[in-house]
Amino acid sequence: MLDYSKEADRYDASRGGEPRAAAAAAAVLGLIPPDAGTLLDVACGTGLVTRCLAARPGLRVTGVDAAYRMARMAGGRVPGAVVLGDSRQLPFPDGSFDAVSTVWLLHLLSGPEETSSVVAECARVLRPGGVYVTTVDKAVSHDVRSDIDAVLAPRPVPPAVDRADAVDAYAAEHALAPAGRARFRGHGQGRSPRSTIEDLRRGWFTQIPPDGPLAARFAAGLAGLPDQDLPRPDPQFSLRAYRKRR
Question: Which of 69, 95, 107, 114 lies at a CB distance of 3.0 to 4.6 Å from 127, suitable for a disulfide?
Answer without folding.
Answer: 95
